[in-house]
């Protein structure tokens, strides 16, 4: 270990695992964006809060920036280390620390995978309701750092609603205990919520106490085929009025094309322009209400075809058509937009954005999907094979500027659930005012006075 800074770290923390091999630097230095060449100084894998504190204090002493790292499933460049930073991976801090049956809470280390949290809650006949396709690889710390949403926001809300307490190591190496699981606490600013969606720029989340809830009722899944974009909100309103919705997701024919090419099965005999997959409380009343809602939507011309799951296996097959989209597109390294507006604004926004993207990407394969029920739209643009990467990104960013302007007009956000990271910081001004950005920088200056935690993400200093 020739770098004197790393030698000092190894001497101060001989039990800390440090990785410097080229393959490790590449693996831990990037996230799913794949747009930046990883170039970290080294990878640190602590196993305790005390080690995390010691690493931060070493970083201050040696002026080394730190990139906190969870599952690195992010899509905004928030976990990229491209400028000699130390990647601080929480993957070895992945244990369940405790369960409180009275508070119905689960305390975990930040590196634990979301799926492991689901399993731990299930052991106590409870549920942690935040869920999305990357559940097996994403970490709770990363979920909290981006306020991850997923497929059940319509019923349960975002990650923020389920965080009862946090332990965070700030940029000074101090351990902050925030929230402490209290249901009521009017003792000043809620610093716990400040850490949610902070993308590792205010502190390193090392431990979380999560609220649990009752398991969802037995559910059924329905896949609907729609004739056009305009029908989406009518179908949503009709189903929401008649059913207890757990999820309401949409995707396009291009999304279905890629998922079926990746192994998914189309239950229909033909291809339709748009699809909705929705999950709802089952039972005789639920099934009858779903059939009535389906017949109403068909009668109005909003739905062309549909299928309701008859088993858990079939429900899983239908969900795969939605959850398999990101994986099926990954080989194309798509340019992604993750935007949101108020649900009431969605029809007008969709009409404007559809026209904008049709004009901006006339020859590109554009794949749409998202959580229409909570106002969240995902736009994936696939690079033509014969187009240079730099030219492709430049054209996409030109369209994203127009998209950001449309979001500003409609009071929306350039990031619904993926965070800002490196990808979207140029467009943050469409969502936040200059006064807000000044406050955000000021808060960061207090908690990370040296600007060493995930620098360049969210905004430049």
Automatic annotation (TrEMBL):
Source organism, top-level taxon: Bacteria
Cofactor(s) this protein requires: FAD
Domain (FAD-binding PCMH-type): residue spans on this chain: 36-215
Gene3D superfamilies: 3.30.465.10, 3.30.70.2190, 3.30.70.2740, Uridine Diphospho-n-acetylenolpyruvylglucosamine Reductase, domain 2 (3.30.43.10), Vanillyl-alcohol Oxidase, Chain A, domain 4 (1.10.45.10)
Annotated signal peptide: none
PROSITE patterns assigned: FAD_PCMH
InterPro entries: FAD-bd_oxidored_4_C (IPR004113), FAD-bd_PCMH (IPR016166), FAD-bd_PCMH-like_sf (IPR036318), FAD-bd_PCMH_sub1 (IPR016167), FAD-bd_PCMH_sub2 (IPR016169), FAD-linked_Oxase-like_C (IPR016164), FAD-oxidored/transferase_4 (IPR051264), Oxid_FAD_bind_N (IPR006094)
Pfam families hit by this protein: FAD-oxidase_C, FAD_binding_4
UniProt keyword Metal-binding, yes or no: no
Keywords, ordered alphabetically: FAD, Flavoprotein, Oxidoreductase
Family: Belongs to the FAD-binding oxidoreductase/transferase type 4 family.
Annotated protein name in UniProt: FAD-binding oxidoreductase
Organism of origin: Luteimonas composti
